[in-house]
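Exercise 7.
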Amino acid sequence: MSPSNETPEVVLEQYREYLRLLARVQIDVRLQGKLDPSDIVQETLLKAHQARERFHGRNGAEMAAWLREILANTLIDAVRRFTTAARDVAMERSLEQSLHESAQRLEGWLAGEQASPSEQAERHEQTVQVALALAQLPDEQRQVLELKHLEGWSVEAIGRHLGRTEAAVAGLLRRGLKRLRQLLVSETP
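Solution. The predicted structure, written as tokens, is:
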């Protein structure tokens, strides 16, 4: 997924589900009825396309980092539209840090101990594939996997949040992981 050997539109489109995953995780519960992750991502990709000449990265990981920065700014702008926080620097830093941490947890979910540059590039490719596969899961399975592996929530906390028993959450996690593995195997050439 090298940014240099495909058109900018194709390269950006490859990150849509990755960005949507991060946006879903970051949108505050109080704003979920007002902000649609797909709209936020569409706006992010439009801004990226308009600013593509400013991207000077050499690989997919650098492209992902650049897009996360644009996503963070887009989310901040959207939150400002629905709150009284016209310019809250602490909120901006918190959101940027939270996006970075979510991306790291996603990559960490796939990572080994130490990785060479080629292994890091491969892991980045896998991260984008996981985001695509997660988008294909039933909503409840996707949501529990995101809360557990990207937000770091406990099974107990997920159960309280969703109004389900820990056993029900564990079943959703198990079925979600099984289906995710199947999707990832079927996408492997």
